[in-house]
């Protein structure tokens, strides 16, 4: 064990939010104590995105829910999930002249530099902005009107804008990822956008055209606020790093047993430390060798080590989806498609069970209260 882990201070109180195909589960822990899982919220309703906004005097939980035939919506709670509210009109809706209809809210991301601003990534691939803490949203027309958008093709999970990366100090700078549109960045607050996929290989294309300007099947992107120019990206066909905010990308996935997977998360305190959950490519999308292992790199992707202490030892067939792994100051957490949730308070060196036998886990978020 690294010496810094031996000196780790006691953990503060933690809130964990687990969105599943049949409801939202909240779990709380006091200090280093066990997590107590509370009764389900939104039972039978899919919860595809969650954010815990800690910028205000009290945490606000935002949940992107799917009502079934009533459609998707965004709910919020300012009392740690005891009561929930929803805007009087649809909080996220496409303007009538777009001819589009909201299918799903894939991402809810509070701004790091603008109080009250929350970003929402949705399907069909579009970005929305809220200036009232996530109560109501408006379409970011600069991305919607981008000439590439008409050529974006849906991935297996749909044409989803699943990642929003606001700059920690510059509100004009942000980036998004669309599956299967690629990675895009803006330097003017979203008024205009440029594709930033140089170096990301798309091996499904003919030889000689495997590095297109856009159209890559990006699964997840993350960064650290102290070094926003350094990005890490989990692609359908690789793991990549950029040191110039997406200007160019370099593969860092070769040492992994498989560079296919969905989630990727950067450590909250160390910008060169990141986590992935490799899967067996497109064979059956199950964990490599059917072993439940998170892989961590402490040197920006140069080398990787498997982390499995405390995780199931027997054959495991359940995958981890793109937003079902998070790295926070409360710990590292992930949930599987067979409803198991695990956590680590020592950066992945050892794991413990948080919850068992939940519905299919879609998203996991944690915050210090």
UniProtKB/TrEMBL annotation:
It comes from the Bacteria. One of its GO terms (biological process) is xyloglucan metabolic process. SUPFAM superfamilies: Oligoxyloglucan reducing end-specific cellobiohydrolase. Transmembrane segments: none annotated. Coiled coil: none annotated. This is BNR/Asp-box repeat-containing protein. It comes from Streptosporangium canum.
